[in-house]
Design brief:
Length: 233
């Protein structure tokens, strides 16, 4: 299960991010300058700064390590840094590329993403306009190729079932389209966990489906909400 971002309860119930535990890199070249873009999923500002610090160490001989990140389901934390490039020519266009990224037609909800663009200067000045285009296009090109997921705030519900029937019931629930969270195990039962839309009608329908699949022997117990990764698209 993916890690939870540490933010208070948000207005958003769904947003898009990078696939968890994966770093994505893409390189472009503009007039002999190399632009190495690194995208990383980060849950908080400390994580974003750790990514930048690691890349500064790895690419210690590069002239610039420009960065931008957007965090939180409501995208309320936004930062960028030009790292020595003329003001507004690197970090800001990078942040704009993250914020304006459409994850579906008309939907801009990308978050919990840190972008770092490492530049090796090629000896030819690009000018302010050229820098803006280069940094923006570097992030955009990386995002075009990066794996994305939806993060949904779901109600985690538990179902206690005998060990002997847990596997069958879990398979039936998955086949019915339910998102399963991590199971746990007690002495007398397996605790299946379902991640359900956090609304009363949806919970009621799930309880009815569970009763049908278990011949009325299993009970759905609502719990807390968590952010869960589901396939994008």
């Amino acid at each position: 299960m993916a890690e939870d971002a540490v933010f208070p309860e948000s207005r958003a119930t769904v947003y898009t991010s990078l696939a968890a535990d994966r770093e994505f890199r893409h390189e472009t070249e503009v007039k002999r300058s190399r632009f190495i873009t690194v995208l990383h999923r980060t849950a908080d500002e400390d994580g974003a700064r750790s990514v930048l610090a690691a890349l500064r160490k790895e690419f210690h001989d590069a002239r610039h390590h420009c960065s931008a990140f957007v965090l939180g389901p409501d995208r309320d934390v936004q930062r960028s840094n030009d790292d020595g490039e003329p003001s507004g020519t690197a970090g800001t266009p990078m942040l704009d590329a993250l914020l304006k990224r459409e994850t579906a037609p008309g939907v801009t909800d990308l978050s919990d993403v840190t972008a770092v663009v490492v530049r090796y200067f090629g000896g030819i000045l690009l000018g302010a306009g050229g820098l803006v285009r280069a940094y923006s296009e570097a992030v955009t090109a990386a995002l075009d190729r990066a794996p994305l997921v939806q993060r949904r705030r779901l109600r985690i519900c538990s179902v206690a079932v005998p060990h002997t029937s847990a596997g069958r019931l879990e398979n039936d629930l998955r086949a019915a389209g339910y998102v399963m969270a991590e199971s746990s195990y007690a002495v007398e039962a397996t605790i299946l966990r379902l991640a359900l839309p956090d609304d009363p009608p949806g919970l009621a329908r799930a309880a009815e489906r569970l009763a049908a699949l278990s011949a009325g022997t299993a009970e759905l117990v609502p719990g807390e909400t968590e952010w869960i990764d589901v396939p994008h698209g």
